[in-house]
Automatic annotation (TrEMBL):
UniProt cross-references to InterPro entries, sorted A to Z: EcsB_ABC
Keyword Transmembrane: yes
Keyword check for Glycoprotein: no
Segments crossing the lipid bilayer: 42-62, 82-106, 127-151, 157-179, 191-211, 217-235, 312-329, 335-358, 379-397, 403-423
Top-level taxon of origin: Bacteria
Name of protein: ABC transporter permease
Length: 431
């Protein structure tokens, strides 16, 4: 009996690490890196054929190489004498704040690699190194293009140019890592409160040092060493972070889909970000004191417009354009223009209400046609009043001075109520 048990035990030996498809973290990262390259290449091929690109790249490369050789051997363009050296650090600072980190993490890692934290740390470290290498190559390529202007146009020595390159690369590392750490730790408006100083402060210091020590290679190298030390600290801090896996995956997906987003920008609308709570009316408090069904329906329509970023942006944009048009228009045309613009705004608000009231979800609610019309008239009146009051201020105050300051509120209110009632009678009662 014991011999049979031993035979069973030895016939099912434990699996070794070589039995897995990717027995180590570095091999898994290498596989994901190759997959990432194939994915980006496939995205580019969907937009342009390689044969067509060759007809563009080869002539463009030859022509660009001829100009580049001329910048080194011939005369510099005349515009280089008018542009200050400050434009070079500013251009690099813009380059530093663009882009992000690609860590090649996936959603399934939360389940399959949860017990292998060393694998996740290995993928994180190699993803950080890969992202910093890409940043280095990007900065070096732009620096190589601008090198004739830096040395011949602005008179920097080769040593100072090399030190500036090292300073730019290390500053780019620091900016990328600091911005990434903030992105995976913060959400909402707090994210921007931390992200803006995390990115702008090192970029501003870089610009200041590049301008102050442009002819001091040793000082530039010392500053680059400080940025390198900040980079090392940021890498160690990033590897010690816990509880940011979902944010890591989200930010990684954004960076990997950046090329696809650029190609589809003119075809598809940008998806709205997922919000667990709206920025405006966060507690869903009642807007109107009345508890009638029509008032509740009116409040729901107002919240639907204000909480939609596209609609709210269009409302403010039209208000701003109207204020500018009224301000520059001749005095005798401002009254007529105010009425016309108010009619246009009321038409858009009534169209929005018809779409809102005609939604399938609203159709489930037991509102009659008259109730919808009454609620729509209230909503249009409330939404048009801020517009008419602000625009009437632009018309009355410059024309009538102190008298206009006293009259623009009641006259703007009356204009908004009058035109909203006209549209409510014409459009809402028909539907």
């Amino acid at each position: 009996m014991s011999g049979r048990n031993n035979a069973v035990i030895h016939s099912n030996p434990p699996k070794s690490r070589s039995a897995y498809a990717f027995p180590t973290g570095p091999r898994l990262f290498r596989r994901r890196l190759f997959s990432h390259w194939r994915e980006q290449s496939a995205i580019i091929r969907t937009a342009a054929d390689w044969t067509v690109l060759l007809y563009i790249i080869i002539p463009g490369g030859l022509l660009g190489g001829r100009f580049y050789y001329g910048f080194w051997k011939g005369d510099m363009p005349a515009w280089t004498s008018f542009l200050p050296f400050m434009m070079i650090p500013l251009l690099f600072a813009i380059l530093l704040v663009t882009g992000g980190m690609v860590l090649l993490l996936q959603e399934g890692d939360l389940l399959f690699l949860r017990q292998r934290q060393n694998w996740i740390n290995s993928i994180l470290l190699r993803g950080i190194i890969y992202s910093l290498i890409v940043t280095t190559l990007k900065i070096a390529a732009v620096f190589a293009v601008l090198l004739p202007f830096i040395i011949r146009g602005y008179g920097l020595s080769p040593g100072a140019a090399g030190s500036l390159l090292l300073l730019t690369i290390t500053a780019g590392w620091s900016v990328k890592l600091l911005g990434h750490v903030v992105k995976v730790q913060r959400q909402g408006f707090r994210r921007w409160l931390w992200l803006i100083p995390a990115v702008t402060v090192p970029s501003g210091i870089y610009i200041r040092l590049a301008l102050l020590w442009e002819n001091s290679p040793l000082l530039l190298l010392a500053a680059a060493a400080v940025y390198a030390a900040v980079t090392v600290w940021a890498v160690r801090y990033r590897l010690r972070l816990r509880g940011t896996f979902l944010s890591d995956v989200r930010e990684d997906y954004k960076q990997r889909m950046r090329i696809a987003g650029l190609l589809l920008r003119g075809v598809l609308d940008k998806p709205r970000p997922t919000r667990y709570r709206p920025w405006i009316f966060r507690k869903s408090q009642p807007l109107l004191s009345s508890t009638l069904p029509e008032s509740r329906f009116t409040a729901a329509g107002i919240k639907a417009l204000v909480r939609n970023p596209a609609h709210l942006k269009l409302y403010f944009a039209f208000t701003g354009v109207s204020m500018g048009a009224l301000f520059i228009a001749p005095a005798f045309l401002r009254w007529i223009l105010l009425i016309v613009l108010t009619l246009l705004m009321c038409y858009w608000l009534s169209s929005f209400w018809l779409l809102f009231a005609g939604d399938d979800y609203i159709g489930i609610l037991p509102f009659t046609k008259s109730q919808k019309a009454e609620a729509g008239s209230k909503a249009i009146k409330i939404l048009i009043l801020p517009y008419t009051v602000v625009c009437s201020a632009v018309v009355f105050i410059p024309l009538y001075g102190w008298l206009g300051l006293l009259l623009f509120v009641p006259l703007g209110y009356g204009l908004g109520v009058f035109i909203s009632r006209i549209y409510s009678t014409i459009r809402l009662t028909e539907h």
